[in-house]
Fold each of these.
Amino acid sequence: MPTAEIITIGTELLLGEIQDTNTRHIARTLRNAGIDLYRTTTVGDNLDRIVTAVREAIERSNIILTTGGLGPTVDDPTRNAIAKALDVELEFKEDLWEKIENHFMRYGRPPTENNKRQAYIPSGATVIDNPVGTAPSFAINTKNGVLISLPGVPREMEYLLDNSVLPLLRSRFNLEGIIKAFAIHTSGAGESQIDEKIEDLERLSNPTVGLVAYPGQIDIRVTAKAASLTEADQMIGTLVNTINQRLGKTIFGYEETTLEQVISGLFNKEKVKIAVIEFGMDGRLSARLGNEHVLLEKSLMLDHPQELCEVKELAHSIYSQIAPNWVFVSLLNVSSQEQINLSLFLLMQGKEFEKIRSFGGHINLARPWAENTSLDFLRSNFAN
Ligand code: ATP
């Protein structure tokens, strides 16, 4: 399987002025095509630093994809840098210049002298037609494979990646395999608890199993490399069955499923109308539960309770006042980084459920953790 690297070029990326969405898009595309991505690098519009990055990448990997720096100005150094890195000259391509001229003419204005720069590409490179823009793309052989330079503009880059680059890579590297990833979502258990139960699976090499921790939610990613999609699906299916058996109800869904969708489904089934009183989460918990189920979001007139007993009292008074099926109170108390507590109380057709949880993560993550933990509390009490 060939290995790849991405080099995104642009000082504005390093300054944090724009987000590097090109790397993400290319990374996913390569993954789906069965190409192992080894490294991603971002460099500014600086000739020498691009030369160094390209030379290093060429030594390590078979496929190098660069984006950006192909414009007509002197600030667009990619062509020169790649020629220098590969020890070749820049070459003027008459046919490329004609295409650039035609592109401009279609928009009713002639190209400037500057645009001529874009008709120079490293000697020995093959032009990749860019029907969606003027920044020309090219592919050039390296000692271990190929380097392809793509425009920085995401729309142009994505078009060329799908329509020219992937077909080129498929035939050049006889790519038949694919990589497929599948996400399993859990809540109500910590990373170490999950890890304990599937530790052996995390050591497998294909499919691979990895944990991704979010506040109040742990995802398990199963990734398979296979010759076909059917084979990858089978490999993933077998492993997902094993994980299901080991983790049971800790799993709340797969792929795009969210906690709120699961709860909404349960609410619809049981025709639950719930009064939600939340503190410390800025109304986000009620918002996630959705209007169709929530009778009372939060009354600003209510005093912020301090203790679980006050929470209970509040729940009972709401229950008698507006008589929903359920009353749910979730109180997030953030006293300091060391003291982050969540008091949960659910009054459900005469039954009461309560829990106090504390959070050891960073204070900035307390809210999303509290939201997910509250949603998990509702979900788990459906079974009771
Ligand atoms: P052009 O000829 O249009 O200038 P180019 O190949 O020279 O194309 P750049 O000038 O480097 O590309 O970038 C053009 C624009 O594309 C940037 O201003 C930015 O908005 C976007 N862009 C560049 N690189 C990235 C990236 N890695 N991720 C997301 N957007 C990007």
Amino acid sequence: VIVSRFAPAPTGHLHIGHVVNALHVWTMTRARGGTILLRIEDHDRQRSRPEFAASILDDLAWLGFDADAPPVRQSDRVAIYEDALRRLRSGGLVYACSCSRSEIAAEGAASDTELRYPGTCAARGLPEHAGYGLRVRLEATVERFVDLRHGPIEQTPSEQCGDLLVRDRYGQWTYQFAAAVDDLVQRVTLVIRGDDLLPSTGRQIQLARLLGRTTPPEFFHHALVMKTPTQKVSKSDNDTGVRELRAKGWKPEDVIDYAKSLIVGR
Ligand code: GLU
């Protein structure tokens, strides 16, 4: 049985990029007779707001994107993340880390595209306490998967990002950890999301394996919606928000047609 999910972060209103993602999720999953879950990814307490979550859910319903279960919120799932953390810890895979982002940047160990954690605290045996982050020791393995659009992909998370942050210095669960745990616990078998998250896939596959997942989900990474050939649609744009389009008198089908026009030919 196919289980997919739509997993917006409530850090802004629903915009046309979300609608394109939702179209992919609903079309592909329904075509395979699958189930769709809604997950509000409010792991970032600084940037997430309940009113954005409410407006996202309202716009989705207005557009006719119906999920098969009530939405879940990551902020309600602390016990689930604690439990996953315990399992990693009992395998000796977790360590406390006192490094700030700027300290990591100053180590100069950045790989070509992103900041790689060089393992500064890996053998320090710091106590776990408030003010320290928690990291999971990654294996130096190559993660291989077949993306349903891109074909075979190889990624080496230990070289891309180094030991993964699970909980940050402010006690917040990270996106990588929360998403991998949720996809495991919610038995998600099909992940459909934008190309911007392609580099995250190998590390989420590995994290899930360390937590005991034997079969990773299938992945489909679609092209991002561009406003112009070089400019991504962003949450701060005020001309691509479903709110704004609704206020201008657009009907749900107009918004859907607009989103479809952005997919055609890609
Ligand atoms: N919450 C992520 C976002 O809004 C999506 C996560 C995912 O699909 O894995 O970009």
Amino acid sequence: MFDSQTGGHVGVADDPDVAGRPLATGVPGVYLFPGSFETIIGLLRQGIAAMAADEPVRRLHIPPVISRRVIEHAGYVKTFPHLLGTVHSYTGDSCGWQALAELVDEGGDWHAQQRISDLVLLPAACYPVYETLTDQALDGPRKFAVEGNCFRQEATSEIGRLRSFRMVELVTAATADYCLQWRAHWLERVSGWLRSLGLHVDVEVADDPFFGPGKKLFQAAQRMQELKLELRVPVADGVVQAVASANYHKDHFGETFRFSCDGEVGNTSCMAFGLERIALALINAHGPDSGSWPDGVLAALGGGHD
Ligand code: ATP
Ligand code: ZN
């Protein structure tokens, strides 16, 4: 793989002979996924859906872009400006474009007049959900199951750290007590599920990669309140990464989007799954051919040998 900070190639996943693994492209952190890898992604979707079968979830497929206003409003821009991908486009006239067009072939500054649009790239799958609850008074928990293609302008591109990756999330909006219990329940359930997939799981209190002078303070506060818990598993030889996280946002989104539940400001929790990372972990443990995985593993993915 390519390291965007050093400009050097590191790691193994770009070897086209390594069957079933993501193929590197000319840009760091962006991969092409072979059919056998996609089969594993499909099994993961199925396994997660089977786990959530007894929850009355609203299923939503999330597009890879989201309203810039929502992301500004939700606080993402202030806390993670370094990760956010913005969408720009040319808004000048065709005369103005003539001169700029000539710069394209030279690799010149043709984009000097691109302007930011009303969209940004989706940084996490759950963000659009909270906006759908704007100004609502919920009379009980509201649950969602979402999947989206997320983008993060990661500074490095070691194995498992992609810039474009898929995230499935189970999300609930409810009271504080309910959200905390729901998260604890899902943390336990997903840890057990990952173990049944033959993976070694560590649960750890974690923090988000905040930016700027407030970074240390935000991270310490997040850890002290145990708002983010990560499930970490080996994804390659000697590499352990978070493949899922269980998050409690308190009333942050309820305040922002003015929704309530049972008379109190709405609280939210989400259980997020990184599909590519779980797939890499499974390949690392059982090989790239999912057809030859142990029956117990396939059963936990909602399938199995006939
Ligand atoms: P990390 O600490 O590894 O940067 P994160 O804490 O920022 O991850 P979350 O925001 O909790 O991640 O995202 C939910 C899940 O999405 C993570 O547990 C992980 O499995 C996956 N994920 C996050 N960032 C990436 C990435 N750059 N490439 C691949 N998967 C990712
Ligand atoms: Zn989330």
